[in-house]
Amino acid sequence: MNLIASMSEVTPRAGCPKLAELADRIARLTPDDGIHATAIDALSLVRISTPTACTPVVYEPRLCIVAQGSKVATLDGQTYHYNPLNYLVVSVTLPVFGQVVEATPEHPYLCLRLDIDPDEVAALIADTADQESTHAGVDPRLYAARVNTPLMDAVLRLMNLLDTPQDLPVLAPMAQREILYRVLTGDLGHRLRAIAATDGRSSRIARAVATLRQRYLQPLSIDELASSVHMSTSSFHHQFKAVTTMSPLQFQKHLRLHEARRLMMAGGMEAMSAARHVGYESPSQFSREYKRLFGAPPRFEAGRARAVPQV
User: Taking every annotated instance into account, which residue ranges of this chain make up the domain HTH araC/xylS-type (predicted)?
Assistant: First the structure.
């Protein structure tokens, strides 16, 4: 487990009123299981009442704070644990296997997720003259750090604003900026800086990943993608796999299969229609690759998966 303890830790939930307040607020705003959007576009809340199966998911650049329960994530054969009072910073889109391991109807898994805008991070770094480690590479490992008191206070201020929607346009951006600042000056500041980095090989791969995320339904030209980030094709292949743990073609395939699964789960689309939508011409190839990733054929797995939110 990669766990970095900060110097001003808050204690476990039983002895931490602020953590209890965060858990209670998330529970109040999530009446049922799943991922819940909020009036703040970048903020979403997660509630899961029972342990889940180990399921492939795609982590986007964001900050995650667990308020109750626990979860494990597996990346490239390595397993990471995170639970209450840990926060996770994801600096690049990553395909992982996620599993909620501690959750009950009485004490569900509760998590806060805040999407991270690289431009906002870059502006914050410039405004604070905090240029330390701005050239840090984007590595594929997952790191958790302990939530300190200033970060918890900032998160609660953002959550409290959901009770006063009239204040959101003015105060929500300020609260989000403070949260980013607390992370930037904390144990995982280097990972936040990596999101805003504009040069270096790893940051170029991050830009290529963002391009793939936006255009994964289009035919993929490795040469063009490498050229767009000013890298040779061979160097691009090597660096892409170092950052994401898979080749560009594998990464695109994962994105397409996840989108097909989403279409079947959320939209009720038939398996073959979803396959065609994401670019598969061969039903047998789609079924074979879908089963390899998700562990069951699409027709059978889709019905079961509707009850398992991707968290």
Answer: 206-299
First to last CA, the chain: 19
CA 80 to CA 3: how far, in whole Å? 9
Contact predicate 97/154, CB 8 Å: no
Q: Record the tokens describing residue 273, joined without a space.
A: 């229609």
Burial of 266 per CB tally in 10 Å (0-12, 13-18, 19+): exposed
Question: Tokens 């990346």 map to which residue?
Answer: 75
pLDDT tens digits along 158-182: 999 999 999 999 999 999 999 999 9
150 with 178: CB under 8 angstroms? no
Q: Which helix (H) or strand (E) holds 21?
A: helix 17-29
Q: Tokens at residue 199, please?
A: 């040069």
Render 207-255 in DSSP notation, one character per residue.
HHHHHHHHSTTSPP-HHHHHHHTT--HHHHHHHHHHHHSS-HHHHHHHH
What pTM was computed for the model? 0.80
Quickly list DSSP for 285-299: HHHHHHHHHHSS-HH
What tens digit of pLDDT does each residue of 205-240 get? 888 888 888 888 888 889 999 999 889 999 999 988
How far apart are alpha carbons 30 and 200 in whole angstroms? Answer: 41
Could you give the CA distance from residue 195 to residue 193 in angstroms, rounded to a whole number?
A: 5
Residue found by looking up tokens 């209450």 in the block: 84
